[in-house]
TrEMBL record, chain A:
Keywords: ATP-binding, Cell membrane, Membrane, Nucleotide-binding, Transmembrane, Transmembrane helix, Transport. It comes from Paracoccus versutus (Thiobacillus versutus). One of its GO terms (cellular component) is plasma membrane. Gene3D superfamilies: P-loop containing nucleotide triphosphate hydrolases (3.40.50.300). Pfam families: ABC_tran, BPD_transp_2. This is Branched-chain amino acid transport system permease protein. It is a multi-pass membrane protein.
From TrEMBL, chain B:
Keywords: Amino-acid transport, Cell membrane, Membrane, Transmembrane, Transmembrane helix, Transport. GO terms for cellular component: plasma membrane. Its main location: membrane. It is found in: Cell membrane. It comes from the Bacteria. It holds the Pfam family BPD_transp_2. It is a multi-pass membrane protein. One of its GO terms (biological process) is amino acid transport. Belongs to the binding-protein-dependent transport system permease family. LivHM subfamily. This is Branched-chain amino acid transport system permease protein. InterPro entries: ABC_transp_permease, BCAA_transport_permease.
Amino acid sequence: MHDISAAITTRFRVAATGCIIGLLVVAVAPWLLDTYLTNILIRTLFLATVVMTVDILWGSVGILTFGQSAFFGIGAYACGLIFTHYGFGPGWALAGLALGIGVGAVVAAATGWLAFFHGSLPLYASIITLALPIVLTQVIFSGGNFTGSSSGLSGFPTYYWDLRIWFWTAGTFLVLTTTAAWLLVRSDFGRVMVAIRENEERCAYLGIPVSRIKIMLMIASAVIASAAGFGYAAFSNVVAPELASFQLGTEFLIWTALGGRGTLLGPIFAALGIDTMSSWLSGTMPFLWKLLIGVVFVAVIVLLPRGFAPLVGGLFRRILPVRTAGAPARVLVPDTRSRLGQGADDQKPPLRIEHLSRRYGSLSVLTDVTMTGRASHLLGIIGPNGAGKTTLMRCISDGSERSGGKVEINGAEIGRGAPQDIVALGVGRSFQNTNLFDTLTVADCLLLARYRIDGARLFRSSVGIALPEPALDILRATGLDQRLADETGNLSHGMKRGLELAMVLATEPSVLLLDEPTAGLTRPERMVIGKVLGRLTRDYGLCIVLIEHDLDFVREISDRVVVLHQGSILMEGTVDEVVSSELVRSVYAGHHVEAAQ
Amino acid sequence: MAILVLDILTTAAILFAVSAGLLIILGVMKLINFAHGAFLTVGGYMAYLNGAAGLSPWLSIPLAAGVGFLGGLVIERVIVRPLYDRPLDAILATWGLGIVIGQLITLGFGRGVQFAPNPISGTTELFGVDYSAYRLAVAVIAVLLVVALSALLKLTRFGLNARAVIMNERLARGLGIDSTRVRALTFGLGAALACAAGALITPLISVDPNMGLPWLVNSFMLVMVAGVSFPSLLVASLILGGAQVVVSTYANPILGGMTIVVAAALVLRISPKGFSRA
């Protein structure tokens, strides 16, 4: 226990140290720099804050956004418009800041709603973020005298503070937001963000509301960008459509890429360096400088996808070997409040499927499937390849999949719900292919699976991961409880399957969908899984639906078996009835069904 | 009314011609070419140079296509090929390439606006109204382009290979189709189409180092909505281009300028596959 809390304390100490060093540099810098450079740097510090938010969105969560400039522009115009048209003073300044942040947040929420929904492509989200600044600049252009159209607004009253005060304001803003972001990406919530970047689909099936998290992050970064834009405008006393343009948005991306996406500090230093250099050199050789940036950018994208930060970091570590604040070791604890199996009721079937069908164009994969899964029952689904078994699983766990029919989970219809909504109704699904997050550790994966129930701490890490008993059993039986800190990519196939099952159980489902959970496992490993499944139905009252090819395994653990053939239910009955059936035998042996009848 | 209809038809034709190069690259290579706008600009400057050299204005289109094809092959080899597995990075790299091309043009020609000579000047009478002859010519050329591109994809060996790569690249490679070659040729073709389109539209507008940018965004949206078939690109151009003309005529041109972007984004939100299912 001591090590764990030590690791967490170390992380906070690193953050605090970094924050204090940053603040000291900011405090001292204005006395060392000349007026010209201070002037440039104040603007650049505001821009660097926006770049930091771009890095959170792109580097951590994987949203390639061209539109962060739009929020910057909204903040800037809130300042310009209020001070020009309405009034000036501390009250008006606060009102302007609040307006900028509020409008930014609303626009971000609307953009997020457009861009992120279950099944949206990353490319589509990028297009929406690209459209946003284009639409916004058109709105500014059409604003006439109110927005100053293409020439913008300038010369409005503002605070003509001493340059040092402006520098401190901008610098403190950058240091504080960056410290918060640094803690965020290293927290439990930060692990969820990485998981979304790595495998969004899998996150949804663990009940993580992927789209909502993306929208929330979009809003949070819009708030910071709007505030930065407000500061920028108040200092520079000029707002122009360029501040909201998609060119500036792509420039943010360029700085992020050059600095090293996902490193947080890299993009900030890249922004500070490149933008300062630009202001300097664009006077003497404007086009050549931009050309050079373009060439370097293309070269970095092609040759150094991680940007310059890893190079600099590696050099730094060679000179000064420092102990990095690693991920804290975690412990598994039994979930005392686990509700696994408590809703089970023999009278109300947890899974009811009526007249389900699935068509791809003219191809019918499932037709008129009607079946019921009862609590404390294990229902085996067998059938030749291409019978529609996996499609059936997909139709139960994702509301947008089926073409017709009804699926009810614990009495609630799934409608067109996304996978995470159906997980909330009580469905847990494991996949045919082990489908894990290769770069995350075993503990991280379990943490993800608990997100729906326990949430994730925003700026901290929790030590214990509470899991229901059967999940702990599997982890102990497969030896995974000793390897919590290992990356899942390094696990054996059997362990991956075990982890997969433990993750599904951690979501505390009442209907468990298992797609060939024992494929490729050894005999003893199968026994372990079979025993756990038996316990889950017996002691926890779960309804388990199992796709399996191994008839002996099915016979050992199933209560009833459904035979799927060419997309419809051929037969339903006890294992022995099914196995002794002529019909089923002929299907498996490849004879015509009609002949057998 | 006749003018409105002609405006819609010619606008759709121009949009189609401008987007075709982007579409073919997306279809075969699954890659968004953000340098498309810069390619259009290069085509525009080819038309300008062609005019300055005193050659026939009609020559500018094949000239631009040739330059685009060769340039495209080189760019594909150096920048695009290493990024096949990283589609989002390819967007950024081609955007960076666009910046480089734009700056090179600025260094060579300055930031000023230039003009290219118009092959057919004046108006012609159609349906009882006088209408710009060159816009009509562009519409005819765009129709020919649809026919030629469809024929290329449906009737030639390259087209068959390209369609195989579109449908299932792994399988195509297994059947002995050199998908690397198909991709290289496709990028060359896409760049050639973009440059030719730049040269084609230049007589209607002026040339400056950023002329491609507004077109890039619109054609990008059209291609997203259209999916990967030329007929559906034509449909998308007609519907969204028509909406743009109507909004510009009856509301105001600035709103018209964002019609395609907004409409395309909404279409994609409601039906993520756009028009390609039709």
